[in-house]
Backbone:
């Protein structure tokens, strides 16, 4: 299966730039996810690779075959790119059986009758639906329709598989099951896959690497662990997983340990950071809810950062409890296995449990909800 190389790709709709000079390479056999909020350019990127959109500038190469090179006025037609694509809506023909839906792309490629039969059986067998080949789409569940769409994308042995939010129409439990099934299938096939989603859980569970996109640019590309544990910006930290944010001023550094005075409380916390900062610089401290520990106010606890807080809310969500704590004017989210806490408590975290970013801007609407003034 080939590599996919995208270089200096840009796309404009009128005066609006939806892609801004992006570059990335997808390795052979890799599951690569474009992750970001609506309007960030992820589907446009996928459509440019598929040939459904013509880039304003840049180049796209799959293996050794150039698909797009605007400098040479090269733009290979969609039907000549040998790419399999699954859309969010599945785009199944309702008046055709499962088997007939799979015949169409093979007929376009002028496959023989014998080849059609073999390929259709093999594709449906891969997705576990060979026994339903004579059913119509309305006779299938949402999960089965999604598998038919995937089988149709695989039936002509594409070089790369493109998936545009294919699980978004499934309910939560079925979507979780489909993620596990889709990952196993991709590993078994070894096919280079480009996946588009706004769902962080899908991206983290499915991907070999993730590209996080905002405003037509790729903010960070990395493994799921790198994206979650070491987000390059506060915006990435806010979008991928839950995160608490506190603005403040740098008081000083001792080696890699920064001392930050928080704006809303005046408290000083210690955060591990490699950033080159100057005392007085505005900064943002970010810490994941699961990296925080809470204990009764009377408990004798130790740690570099021990803050007195109080419980505002407590919710039981099965395997854990989710707390909302008052810290000055901040509402802090904490995930804990302990459900017996109420009233005054102590909030504990170590310097390396938090992240430090230059600037005091709150990165997103999701983050702003965590900075709501406690009432």
Residues:
């Amino acid at each position: 299966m080939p590599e996919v190389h995208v270089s200096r790709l840009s796309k404009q709709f009128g005066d609006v730039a939806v892609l801004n000079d992006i570059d990335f390479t997808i390795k052979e056999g890799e599951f690569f996810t474009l992750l970001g909020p609506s309007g960030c350019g992820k589907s446009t990127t996928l459509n440019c690779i598929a040939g459904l959109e013509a880039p304003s500038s840049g180049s796209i190469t799959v293996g050794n075959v150039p698909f797009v090179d605007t400098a040479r006025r090269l733009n290979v037609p969609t039907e000549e790119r040998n790419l399999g694509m699954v859309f969010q809506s599945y785009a199944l023909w309702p008046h055709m059986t499962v088997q007939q839906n799979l015949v169409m792309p093979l007929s376009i490629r002028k496959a023989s009758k014998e080849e059609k039969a073999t390929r259709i059986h093999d594709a449906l067998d891969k997705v576990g639906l060979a026994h339903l080949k004579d059913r119509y789409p309305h006779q299938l569940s949402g999960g089965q329709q999604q598998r038919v769409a995937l089988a149709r994308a695989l039936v002509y042995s594409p070089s790369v598989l493109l998936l545009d939010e294919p699980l978004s129409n499934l309910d939560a439990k079925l979507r979780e099951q489909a993620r596990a099934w889709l990952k196993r299938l991709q590993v078994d096939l070894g096919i280079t896959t480009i996946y588009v989603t706004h769902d962080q859980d899908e991206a983290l569970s499915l991907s070999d690497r993730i590209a996080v996109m905002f405003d037509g640019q790729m903010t960070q590309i990395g493994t799921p662990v790198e994206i979650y544990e070491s987000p390059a910006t506060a915006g990435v930290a806010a979008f991928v997983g839950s995160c608490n944010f506190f603005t403040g001023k740098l008081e000083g550094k001792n080696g890699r340990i920064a001392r930050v005075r928080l704006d809303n409380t005046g408290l000083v916390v210690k955060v591990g950071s490699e950033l080159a900062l100057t005392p007085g610089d505005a900064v943002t401290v970010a810490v994941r809810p699961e990296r925080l520990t809470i204990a009764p106010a009377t408990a004798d606890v130790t740690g570099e950062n021990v803050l007195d807080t109080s419980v505002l809310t407590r919710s039981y969500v099965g395997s854990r409890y989710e707390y909302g704590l008052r810290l000055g004017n901040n509402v802090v989210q904490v995930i804990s296995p302990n459900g017996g806490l109420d009233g005054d408590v102590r909030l504990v975290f170590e310097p390396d449990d938090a992240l430090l970013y230059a600037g005091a801007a709150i990165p997103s609407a999701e983050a702003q909800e965590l900075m709501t003034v406690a009432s």
Notes: The two ends are 56 Å apart (CA to CA).
